[in-house]
Amino acid sequence: MDNERQASIRKLIADEQVKHIQLWFTDILGNLKMVEIPDRQLDSVIESGAAFDGSSITGYAEIEESDIVAMPDWDTLKVLPWSQNHEKTAFVFCDVLGRDYRPFEGDPRWVLRRQLDRARALGLEFYVGPELEYFYFKGDRPTPEVIDEGGYFDVLPADLGNDLRKQTIRTLDRLDIPMEASHHEVAPSQHEIDPHYDQALIMADRVMTCRLIVKEVAAHNGVHATFMPKPLHGVNGSGMHVHQSLFRGDDNAFFSEDDPNHLSDLAKGFIAGQLKHMSEICALLNQYVNSFKRLVPGYEAPVYISWAHRNRTALIRVPLYVQGKESTVRAELRNPDPAANPYLAFAVMLAAGLEGIENEYELPPSVEPNIYKMTADEREAVGLDSLPNNLYEAVRLTNESALVRRTLGDHLFERFITNKLNEWYEYREQVTRWEIDKYYSVI
User: Fold this and answer.
1) Are residues 144 and 225 both part of a single domain?
2) Judgement on whether residues 141 and 197 belong to the same structural domain of the protein
3) From CA 72, how far away is CA 10, in angstroms rounded?
4) Which pLDDT score, from 0 to 100, does residue 65 have?
């Protein structure tokens, strides 16, 4: 880092009267972690980062190799908006390095960086726009209790959820995270915010920040916000639909003037790659036992591996082209949920798409009818496979995937598989309320 850049960082910290700096990074599951330093340590951290013990971070290092370094990406430095004037706190996202100051193979941010470099070698930049759905619940209850009975796009009188969303968006504006929209979602007490389309690494950082801000604003108002995919039985769960495209400079590489649907060969290969490898990467997009409670018929979540233009039951939807809007041609992937690690999710999404481009996969025909109204024979006739039914099926398929192993690297791949299998075995041993209600009095 040159002297001018170092000086600008010091000036920002001094001008804003920042007294504490949080160094942010994530574990392999996408849980936000941080090391906090006082402002007097700034020069040391600019020069050499902050060393910490990684042995207790999920998926990081073993005890005998635990010393790792959080190296700030100073372009992400921001002041937390709820800081007090006399005691301000800033945060910065970090790349995690090993003791030799090379990228640490367990760092999810590095996994995404590698795939973005792979795309850039082809002259491509990966852009994404996630739709973040979540629930608000009353904050002083031991179980989920909704704060409203609204539905999709509803306007409610004295709507606390709407006020919370507006507070959230104002807070994110102060952090230079622009939103395209926000609204009430389908289920009671379910809401959505939509960050503006941007480059994938920038967006992964923004997803982490958005999740924190949503929860902080809610907590400050005595409400609990959760990104749990399916917190309530019998209503829609929360997804994170991701709009995706590849750009060459200012040109959308997904657009073709000549194709009837305005999809380039590159876009078709990208979509074909995601369809072909979806079962393998599903555990990274839907990484919890609870994730698969959402991926069932009847609740607007995809179940079958297909693509379409108009059909919102398809896994990948390609919105119809609007004349003169070449930059908006995109592929919307609908199965990810907001509890995923965005760095790993975007990395495997891109890896699968690039695999399709580089190997010239053929895109199967689109499936435009409502898939849930098709018979089993009709689905079989058009070759529709389904997503894994549960976490165990998904992890088993991931464990057999050479693509995912290459994308994550051996270190993170093996730790992810172990973590998810342990979660499944722990879940399998539980005796649930449903089982008691179903069997206790009759068996």
Assistant:
1) yes
2) yes
3) 14
4) 55
Q: What type of residue sits at position 402?
A: A
- Least confident range from 301-305, 321-325, 329-333: namely 321-325
Three-state SS at 187: coil
CB 424 within 8 A of CB 289: yes
> Cα(first)–Cα(last) distance of the chain, in Å?
70
Which tens digit of pLDDT belongs to each residue from 272-298? 999 999 999 999 999 999 999 999 988
Measured CA to CA, the distance from residue 185 to residue 49 in angstroms comes to 42
Cβ(420)–Cβ(283) below 8 Å: yes
**Rounded CA gap, 136 and 188, in Å?**
9
- How many domains does the chain fold into? 3
CATH of the domain at 409: 3.30.590.10
Q: For residue range 31-54, list pLDDT tens digits in order.
A: 999 999 999 999 999 998 998 877
Within 10 Å of residue 102's Cβ, how many Cβ atoms?
Answer: 9
- Per-residue pLDDT, averaged over 121-146, amounts to 93
Question: pTM of whole model > 0.85?
Answer: yes
Please indicate whether residue 150 or residue 437 has the higher confidence score (pLDDT).
437
Note whether 127 and 247 are within 8 A (CB). yes
Q: What is the CATH number of the domain that holds 49?
A: 3.10.20.70
| Domain enclosing residue 147, as ranges | 132-238
> What is the rounded average pLDDT for all residues in the chain?
92
Q: Is the pLDDT of residue 246 over 50?
A: yes
Distance CA 193, CA 173 (A): 13
Q: pLDDT value at position 202?
A: 98
- Pair (89, 144) in one structural domain: no
Cβ pair 350, 200 in contact under 8 A: yes
Indicate if 317 and 330 belong to the same structural domain: yes
164 and 244 together in one domain = no
Residue 340 CA to its chain's centroid (Å): 5
For the packed helices 200-220 and 160-174, what is the interaxial angle rounded to 10 degrees?
130
Return the structure tokens found at 382: 């058009």
Taking the CA atoms of residue 406, residue 407, residue 409 and residue 412 in that order, the dihedral angle to the nearest 10 degrees is -140
Tell me how far apart the alpha carbons of residues 1 and 140 are, in angstroms, rounded to a whole number.
47
Q: Looking at residue 64, what is its pLDDT?
A: 45
**Quick one: which of 313, 339, 332 has its CA closest to 134?**
339
Can you tell me the distance from the alpha carbon of 386 to that of 440, in angstroms, rounded to the nearest whole number? Answer: 33
The token duo for 112 is 């995404």
Two structure tokens written together for 181: 């929209």
Q: Which of 183, 203, 238 is the last residue of a domain?
A: 238
How many other CB atoms are found less than 10 A from the CB of residue 89?
Answer: 16
Domain boundary residue, one of 209, 238, 267:
238
Hey, is 252 helix, strand or coil? strand
Does residue 307 sit in the same domain as residue 435?
yes
